[in-house]
Amino acid sequence: MNLEAILKERFGYDTFRAGQRELIEKVLDGQKAMGIMPTGGGKSICYQLPATILPGITLVVSPLISLMKDQVDSLNEVGIPATFLNSTVEWLDREERMRYIETGAVKLLFVAPEKIVDDEFYSWLSQLDISLIAIDEAHVLSSWGHDFRNSYLKMIKPLKQLSGEPAWLALTATATEQVQDDLADILEIPNENIVKTGFARTNLTLKIERGVDKVKFVSNYVLSHADESGIIYAGRREDVDNIYTFLQKKGIRVGRYHAGLSDQERHQQQEDFLYDRIDVIVATNAFGMGINKTNVRYVLHFTIPGTIENYYQEVGRAGRDGLPAEAVLLYAPVDLQLHRFFIGKSLGDDQYKMSLTNKLFKMSQYAETESCLMKFILDYFGEEDTQPCGKCSNCLDNREVVDITADAQKALSCIVRMDQRYGKKMVTRVLVGKDDVANDWHHFEKLSTFGIFKDNTLKQTSRLLDFLSANGFLKSSGGKYQTLLLSDKGLKVLKGDLNVVRRREQVNTEIKTKTMVADGSFDVDLFEDLRKLRLELARKQGIAPFMIFSDKTLKNMCEMMPTSTEEFLSVSGVGKVKLEQYGETFLTAITEFQKTKQRIS
């Protein structure tokens, strides 16, 4: 079987990405497998392609209801019959779809996990000829995951009881080694059938901006990236509303999305963003999980997320087409208090709250580190011996490096003298010598390190402790009340065996214009013409523009300048169906552009 030929004919790609062929072969062999691939790494092809080959239906279970329609529309656009059944489908429409599925005409059925545990639906489902069960966003099954949903575990037993012994495929983009092991145990997937392609996103540039005027930064950034799609995440609804109003007044085509809006308004805002009627959407983290928009060029975080997993999943919304994209985190330590408040109000047990607290500590370390940002994330997900990315804001930071060994030793010594039993707030106040921590039963005023940083502010001293934690000189005890402990690295500093250096603080206000900068390999004017043509066709058909062709495919057209159907078919992302639907239209546009350019020259 020539899988590459099927890949090209159905999806328009000449070669498989890392891990895709291996997973597809295991699925076609009827095995249970798990793929751990970064967002935008091509996970969906791993079940979509087998679905076109296997005799029965492919059941795709996904918690992302808002994504199902996009996936179904995209599949139908390339001639692969697919549909979905979830709570958004009205009763009459549902009955019609179920009868249509029973005829065997549908190759992929997308359902929400809640449907599986519905007795009536399961009874109907069990009568179908199911060849493959694909579980997307599989990390929600693990109690160690960042988005654990206990109710989803209930669907595993009935799925295992389906007749016909279908193949299984679990997919996730954000899973630590602990989560991977948990999923393998739950789904009974052998270790040799776990395919990990790495979490690195080479087209994504990570940046952190500290100490900036956030609203001003966002405004300048968006204005300098005009006509590019972007997402701005904020932690609170009022922040979303304020940024939305501010950008609107600047004349920016902007939308907003949060739980305070009606279902109808949220749906409309999401549709406007998907269909390129607006360029930017400001949202809480409730938005984006179900967004398959491929041409998002940047993601800005107005507020720091609570976990590395959430952060990497959200920045993964950018650059899904493989073209250059940016993710900028606007960091202020005070934002961590919002997450601590939510953790305290959580209905989870103490172990759950402890897990969230520990994850928040790792997120704060990321925000304070001076090492490579991508490497920090890869280390978190268990990828060892990775090299610095060379392009994140830390790798490109050219600020002066100063030796702070003496100050580090003072701080570390104070923590030891406090018996390593206190958190950052208390240690900070002792170092600065605040009266409220003196002359009580602790008798901290008797310590030689009390007030040793009396000429510094609480903020400066707190940032020093954050820096020491983020760069491995301190560690946290974990638990509800986290205390600062010396690491082995910190002990070496205290003994004088290791020096500590830090970049001198300064505010960087430079904002690069345009994320996808033209490199001379394609004609930008033609690219813009094709984008307009794509938008016009999409609006006529009532579909999102990226469902016709991605930005990457348009760029490849501009590079290759095809003049025949054979040449057009060789463009990445153009398959047989897309050629028949759009080949003549786009070839005409390219030819006319070349003629016009020749007349002008």
Structural summary, described in words:
- This protein has 601 residues and is of the alpha/beta class.
- It folds into four domains: 194 residues, P-loop containing nucleotide triphosphate hydrolases (Rossmann fold, 3-Layer(aba) Sandwich); 177 residues, Rossmann fold (3-Layer(aba) Sandwich); 103 residues, Orthogonal Bundle (Arc Repressor Mutant, subunit A), CATH 1.10.10.10; 77 residues, HRDC domain (DNA polymerase, domain 1, Orthogonal Bundle).
- Helix content is 44%, strand content 13%.
- The chain is built from 25 helices and 17 strands.
- The chain has a seven-stranded parallel β-sheet with strand order 3-4-2-5-6-1-7, with helices on both faces.
- Strand 10, helix 13 and strand 11 form a beta-alpha-beta unit.
- Helix 15 packs antiparallel against helix 16.
- It is globular and about 80 Å long.
- The model has no long low-confidence stretch (mean pLDDT 89).
Can you describe this structure in just a few lines?
This protein is of the alpha/beta class and 601 residues long.
* DSSP strand tally: 17
| CATH fold naming of the largest domain | Rossmann fold
| Residues in helix, % | 40-55%
| Distance between the amino and carboxyl termini | 50 Å
Radius of gyration: 26 Å
Count of helical stretches: 25
Number of domains: 4
* Adjacency order of strands in the biggest sheet: 3-4-2-5-6-1-7
Shape: globular
Quick one: CATH superfamily of the largest domain? P-loop containing nucleotide triphosphate hydrolases
CATH second-level architecture of the largest domain: 3-Layer(aba) Sandwich
Largest sheet: 7 strands, parallel
Strand content: 5-15%
Average pLDDT works out at: 89
The chain-level structural class is: alpha/beta
GO cellular component, one term: cytoplasm
Domain Helicase ATP-binding: 24-193
Protein name: DNA helicase RecQ
Domain Helicase C-terminal: 207-362
